[in-house]
Amino acid sequence: MIREMASPLDGYSLKARYLPALIVMLPLWLAFAVWFPPDKQFLGVFASAGVTLVLSTLLAQLGRDAGKARQKALFVEWGGPPSMRALSYQTGIVNPVTLARCHAALRTLVPTLELPENELAEKDNWDSAKKNYESASDYLREATRDKATFRLVYAENVNYGFRRNLWAMKPGGIGTCLIALPAVIAHASMRDLAKEGLTGIDAASALLAVVLFTFWCLRFTKSWVKISADEYSSRLIASAEVLATKSSKTAKE
Q1: Distance (Å, whole) CA 250 – CA 165
Q2: Whole-number Å distance between alpha carbons of 181 and 48
Q3: 146: Cβ–Cβ under 8 A, 6 or more apart, which residues?
Q4: In 3-state terms, what secondary structure has residue 11?
Q5: Is 215 helix (H, G, I), strand (E, B) or coil?
Q6: Confidence of residue 135 (pLDDT cuts 50, 70, 90)
Q7: d(CA 23, CA 177)
Q8: Which of 106, 145, 168, 197 has an alpha carbon within 20 to 30 A of 158's alpha carbon?
Q9: What is the distance between the alpha carbons of residues 98 and 165, in angstroms, rounded to a whole number?
Q10: Are 168 and 70 in contact (CB under 8 A)?
Q11: Residue 100 and residue 197: Cα distance in Å, rounded?
């Protein structure tokens, strides 16, 4: 994937690192706000937000590491990195006609690449094809770092990073929901016993914990990550034609 920027507040870091961590922490933040004494509610929310920020910063780094580590297993399960798979005739990620054009563009851009002409040639010498696909992927990642020019490539890379890191933090996300929901229910039960009405934050926090728990279990899955990975790789491979066109125009000037 495209190399992440160094700044802790760049677009990639905010969406792909910090946002997953905040989603993990959100149920605990609301549960904390529910239990904090009403007369110090503002202080409680402020304090819990501070704790959340600190923990989220830590979780963002841990989530990134977990995402990178679990990504290796995903690639093995999928049959290789998304960008390499997208260059293959066998996967069908990219339309065969489009893929042939992208291969031709890559041969123009990097004459030393020995890309197979068709699926049969690829199957006959898969080891060589794989090495050349990996080299082509490396070239495209380096050549598409301009976010303004390759806006869709960058956007899909951010989406992939977000989904990968969020999925990698799934155990933590389920855990915070399982901690927060009983805490909110206990608070609501105490208010009920004391003949006090339920607060809006009680209901909202309980509902959020249930919704997030459902999403963690049913929606944030490996297949959900793969959809984004394939979309990113398709955009990356398609950039070969753009690069070849720009290279041709530059050569004529």
Answers
A1: 39
A2: 17
A3: none
A4: helix
A5: helix
A6: very high
A7: 10
A8: 106
A9: 30
A10: yes
A11: 66
- Joined together, the tokens standing for residue 107 give 């041969």
Q: What is the DSSP string of 15-30?
A: IIIIHHHHHHHHHHHH
| Secondary structure letter of residue 166 according to DSSP | H
- Using only the alpha carbons of the chain, give its radius of gyration: 24
> CB-based contacts of 234: which residues, under 8 Å, 6+ apart?
86, 93, 94
Separation between Cα atoms, residue 95 and residue 89, nearest integer Å = 9
- Provide the whole-model pTM: 0.85
Token output for 12? 């990639």
2 — pLDDT class (breaks 50, 70, 90) = very low
What's at 212, amino acid-wise? L
Task: Give the residue carrying structure tokens 């927060």.
Answer: 180
